[in-house]
Amino acid sequence: MLKLDIAKAQCFLADDAVAKLEPAVKSAQKSLEEETCLGNDYVGWLHLPSSITPEFLDDVQHTADVLRANCEAIVVAGIGGSYLGAKAVIDALSNSFQWLTKGANEPTILFAGNNIGEDYLYELTEYLRGKKFGVINISKSGTTTETALAFRLLKKQCEEQRGKEEARKVIVAVTDAKKGAARTTADKEGYKSYVIPDNVGGRFSVLTPVGLLPIACAGFDIKALVKGAVDMERQTSAEVKYEENPSEQYAAIRNALYANGKRIEILANFQPKLHYMNEWWKQLYGESEGKDHKGIFPAAVDFTTDLHSMGQWIQDGERSMFETVISVAAPKHKLLFPHDDENLDGLNFLEGKRVDEVNKMAELGTQLAHVDGGVPNIRITIDALDEYHIGQLIYFFERACGISGIVLGVNPFNQPGVEAYKKNMFALLDKPGYEAESIAIKARI
Ligand code: PA5
């Protein structure tokens, strides 16, 4: 089971700082359970894992199997919560050199619709030229520009290369039940489609088909992923004692540190495969808490890589942050340092040791150095990088995020700030309906 260790953060605070937050945390949990919190129409994620039925997972798996059997590549079109969860899980579970090692019948999973880079899209369409590819079009609103742009290109190319009939079999939509262009297109074209529940916001949707379908397409065990989340749902429920509830403790220590001037949280991993887990976490916490001119700034680093870039700042820069480390207890593979007769590199003292032992000493050494440097340190340990433990990690973070935002006093489930750039972009592009904004914004250029 996932373990949370806050001792090396708590020592920077008054002895009772975390204990004092128990009433606020328990009340946040109550308001989530009773759906009385701010943003209460978006708490569908709370009991999502335990409400997923085996039949539903079988259906998602079947769709994935059809795509896997018929595609050399599957492009997942989506942005924000409509892609980061799937990307995070797939990367965490994949071979680091999946491009080189994937089996003959393994489709390559690609992502698009998360940027508007012309070169990116051009190069993607070039890569897909002549290939049997499928598309999963993911958009809760069904109207997000980045995703819609990419999907238009991909749909056309897929139809041109496979014919409209064949394309219909390998294009799947994950979107709203009724509204949005993605729904209209899916219904008109007769695509297989899944509904993103109304009460589950994008960044909390990885355990819906938004994440489950791409993850199953990549060949990973979605039943084990959901099982991990279900077990964590139990472990973090409001009935569990405060001191034993990892999500409550994490939410509490974050708020206590924030109240003590720690405005930045740096999520660190010691496994390169977790890079996109950092990105998913950044969105989850940034979009949930950064509002009303409040909120911890979520930053992220990959160690030991970034110890050679950001390490200086963390050790010695402004003392305004704390660090949360995701530690993976056991790697999947075993690799021992070999003996070298000449020992020219002076590394024979590591002979016979596992690479992970060196990594773990780097982790421990970094933790102690950063604590000495004045950086409170939180550690989250999962047993392994597999579906079950990733499922635990995801739900642990989601639950803590909901609690933490409520304790902070914001609505953790909306994202009004995301709209500002869209309005300007549409006005600048002369989108119909934006005439007044267009005149106003062009006057400012
Ligand atoms: O968390 C969120 O709600 C956002 O990040 C959305 O996921 C993102 O903007 C994509 O929106 P949509 O799924 O409507 O295309």
How would you explain this protein's 3D organization?
It is a single chain. The chain has 445 residues and is of the alpha/beta class. It folds into two domains: 3-36 and 226-414, Rossmann fold (3-Layer(aba) Sandwich); 48-220, 3-Layer(aba) Sandwich (Rossmann fold), CATH 3.40.50.10490. It has 19 helices and ten strands. The protein has helices spanning 7-10, 22-33, 48-51, 54-70, 84-93, 98-101, 118-128, 145-162, 164-170, 181-189, 209-217, 222-235, 246-259, 275-289, 311-316, 355-372, 387-408, 419-428, 435-443, and strands at 3-5, 73-77, 108-112, 133-139, 171-175, 192-195, 264-269, 297-302, 321-330, 377-384. The strands form two sheets. It has a five-stranded mixed β-sheet with strand order 1-10-9-7-8, with helices on both faces. A five-stranded parallel β-sheet has the order 3-2-4-5-6, sandwiched between helices. Strand 7, helix 14 and strand 8 form a beta-alpha-beta unit. Helix 2 packs across helix 17. The model has no long low-confidence stretch (mean pLDDT 96). Residues 79-82, 139-141, 144, 147, 201-203, 287, 415 line the site of 5-phosphoarabinonic acid (PA5).
